[in-house]
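Below is one protein, fold included:
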Amino acid sequence: MKPLKKIALGMLLALAATATAGWFSLDKETRGLLKTVPTNRDLLFWSVPQRDAAFRALDRIPLLAKWRVVQPSSTPRSLPPGSPLALPLDLDAYMAGQRSSAILIVQGGKLRVERYGLDYGPDGRWTSFSVAKSFTSTLVGAALKDGHIKSMDDKVSDYITSMKGSAYDDVSIRQLLTMTSGVRWNEDYGDPNSDVAKFNNHPPEAGVPSIVSYLRQLPRQAPAGERWLYSTGETNLVGILVSEATKRPLAQYLEEKIWKPAGMEQQATWILSKTGQEISGCCIQAAARDYARMGQFILEGAKVQGQGILPEGWLQDATTKRADIGKPGRGYGYQWWTYDDGSFAARGIFGQGIFIDPKRQLVIASNANWAGGASSPKESEAREAFYKAVQQAVDAEAAPSR
C-alpha cells in the first residue's frame, strides 16, 4: 500500500474511532484531506494543494494538531445585507490572482460584498495565521481592564516567572506588543533554519511551555524599545502572559471577552503547542463571517452593550503607529499594522486579513492561499491595491452627484 493511502486509511480509522459530530460534519473538507493530507507539521513548506486542503481543516488533522474549542454566541450578530458595492476592478480576476477562499466587505454596518472561492463557503472555517495576533493583543487590553495585568510597562518576567534570567527581563509588555524587544529572532518563512520555522518543533524543557523554553535561550541584539523586528514567537509569548495573568486558557478568555459578546455565529478553534498552550501568534480557525464580525467589533470600539471591554484610549493606542517599520505611511501598533490615514489591519501569511477603516466605516475580511508563498510581495501588493480600490469605491459613492 502506498504511504499516502496508508495515511488516508489511518485518518479514516481515526474518524471512526473519534465519532464526534464535528468530525462527521467535515464533508468536502475531509474528502480533500484524505486526498492531499500533509504528512508533517512544516506547513510553511507544504504544496499548494496540501494547503488548499489543510487551511480549511487544520483543527481536524489529528496527526498534526490539538486544539481548544471557542463556543459561539447564543444570539449571533446579524450581518444585514446592503446594496452591492460598485468596485472599480474585476473581482473575479482579483480573487483568482489571490487564490481567495473568501472576501467580505462590510460598510456602514451592512454586508455589501460576500464572495467565496477554492470550493469554500460560509459554513466552513479557515485558519487565521497571524490575524490571530490582533485577537491576542485585544485580550491583553481586556486583561488590563479586568485588572489581571497591572500596567503595560510591567516586565514580561513579572508574569512569566520561567523567563527570569533571560533577555526578556528587560522587556515590558508594551515592548512585547510592539515587537521592539531587541531580542534576536529570524522570521524568514523560506528558511527552514529560521526561528519561525523551528520553534514549533523545539523539544521543550520539562514543565515549561514550549515557546518559553525556546525564547528564553535567545540573546539580546539591541536595547529594548529601540528596534522593531517582527516576531511570531513573541506574540506566542504574549499569549502565555495573558494565560498566566488571567489563570485560564487563552481560548476560554477569547470566548468570554470577544467570541460570545461580539455575537460570533460559529464555533472556532485555537490550535495548541506541544505543551498544551494556544499558539497565540497564529492558528485560530473561524468562519469568514466571524472574521468580519471581529472587524466590526473593533471598528465599533470593542464594546458590549455600550461598555468597552478595553481601557479608555487603549484601542486608539493599539491601532496607531507605535513603531517604525521602515515603510512610508505605515507602522506597527499593538499587533496591528497601521496606516497614516487612520486605517489599520490584521494580517496573516498566505493572504489572510482583516482591514479596518474607521473613517469610511469599512471592514474587509479576506482568506486566501497565495500561490506565491507565505509573504509573496506580488500578492501582498495586489491586496494593498485592492484595499485602496475599495476605499475609492466608498468615496465615489459618497461624493455628491453633479
Q: What stands out?
A: Residues 3-64 form one domain. Residues 1-26 have pLDDT under 50 and may be disordered.
